[in-house]
Specification:
367 residues, alpha+beta
């Protein structure tokens, strides 16, 4: 196994920090914090470099907020200078670990994502069902033969064990200064469990999540020899023609995860007949089509209604409302939702027109 030493000096180099700064500010150039940093970005990067080289760097406290979309999640936001450091760390580690990730891990990787994961699921469903072989007495063309083991790791980000993660990283990274910096970043988050947890929202957390669960990926692919396996962060699916084989896989995965100090979610792991449709990444996936899950649609309607109320009170513009709708529409159109998007678009235009009329009607007349 190839190991890597003397990485810290490269991590602290001004060139690496400059590249990290450019990545950290992508799509955030209008943020006041980013604009302030950018005014004297060279000065800030030299200061960061000095702190890293003298090992006096300490991240600032995380800002947290709760996001309900549709799950309730606690999102942690780092100071911009700390985000630059996170990118600097990943810049050094990614070329080492990325080639060791399996092809069917789809979160937080270049040329991967929700769309690619769902497209891969379509391919696997066709393979496992032998191009749509139907169950006896099928009522429609979606009632195909085959099963999927759908699993979720319980409280994944809050239960990642720091010791296990550092051991995994330490198999290849022999630079103690790099490992020490990673320890400082990990310890800046407090999950309520000593030595456990990573904050949702940090770039390092997304990268380390893949490093950590790459151990599971390798086990599933090389020990279980499961051919049709897909993982997106801590959600994963294994397709098979035999329900008994999937039951065996589930037990072996449970046993393996104990070594990683993780456990499967007891309420979110099940073996599903593909004829009933598979819930995956916000869609209900059938052989012939994909539909947006009703829960996701309810959340979108609730959020857009709140935004419409803000518009009626003058707190946002029509541009912001339509930008939000366009973002959701781009996601929804991964599935077969053209008619749904048309209906929602018309409903949104009616709601905006009514609120605009009400605003003008009640607006005080100028003297």
């Amino acid at each position: 196994m190839k190991t890597y030493r003397n990485l810290y000096e490269e991590l602290c180099s001004f060139d690496n920090l400059r590249i990290a700064y450019v990545k950290a500010r992508q799509r955030k150039k209008s943020s006041l914090v980013v604009m302030e940093f950018s005014q004297h970005w060279q000065f800030h990067l030299w200061a960061l470099r000095r702190e890293l080289r003298t090992k006096t760097y300490r991240p600032r406290p995380l800002r947290t907020f709760v996001l309900r979309d549709p799950k309730t999640r606690r999102i942690c936001v780092s100071e911009f200078r700390d985000r630059v450091v996170h990118h600097a760390v990943v810049n050094i580690l990614q070329p080492i670990f990325e080639p060791r990730f399996i092809a069917d891990s789809y979160a937080s990787r270049k040329k991967k994502g929700t769309l690619q994961a769902l497209q891969r699921a379509d391919i696997f469903i066709r393979k496992v069902t032998r191009n749509g072989k139907l169950v006896p007495e099928a009522k429609n063309n979606n009632q195909v033969k085959g099963y999927a083991l759908k699993c979720d790791i319980r409280h994944y980000f809050d239960t990642v064990d720091h010791e296990v993660l550092l051991d995994i990283l330490g198999l290849r990274i022999k630079d103690q200064s790099v490992l020490g910096l990673i320890t400082i970043i990990l310890n800046n988050y407090h999950s309520g469990l000593r030595g456990k947890g990573m904050p949702l929202g940090n770039w390092t957390s997304q990268f380390f999540a893949n490093v950590y669960l790459n151990e599971l990926d390798q086990f599933v692919k090389h020990q279980l020899r499961a051919t049709w396996y897909i993982r997106y962060v801590d959600d994963f699916v294994i397709f098979h023609q035999s329900k008994d084989a999937l039951q065996e896989y589930e037990q072996k995965i449970k046993d393996f995860l104990t070594a990683l100090r993780l456990e499967l979610h007891p309420d979110k792991c099940c073996i599903i007949s593909l004829s009933r449709g598979l819930s995956f990444l916000g869609f209900r996936v059938f052989y012939q089509h994909k539909l947006v899950r009703k829960r996701n649609l309810r959340v979108f309607r609730r959020n857009i209604s709140l935004l419409l109320n803000d518009y009626a009170q003058g707190h946002c513009t029509t541009r912001q409302v339509f930008d939000t709708f366009s973002g959701w529409k781009g996601y929804a159109q991964i599935g077969n939702s053209h008619r749904l998007c048309q209906q929602l678009g018309k409903w949104l235009q009616r709601e905006l027109a009514e609120r605009t009329a009400a605003t003008h009607f009640y607006a005080p007349k100028r003297l």
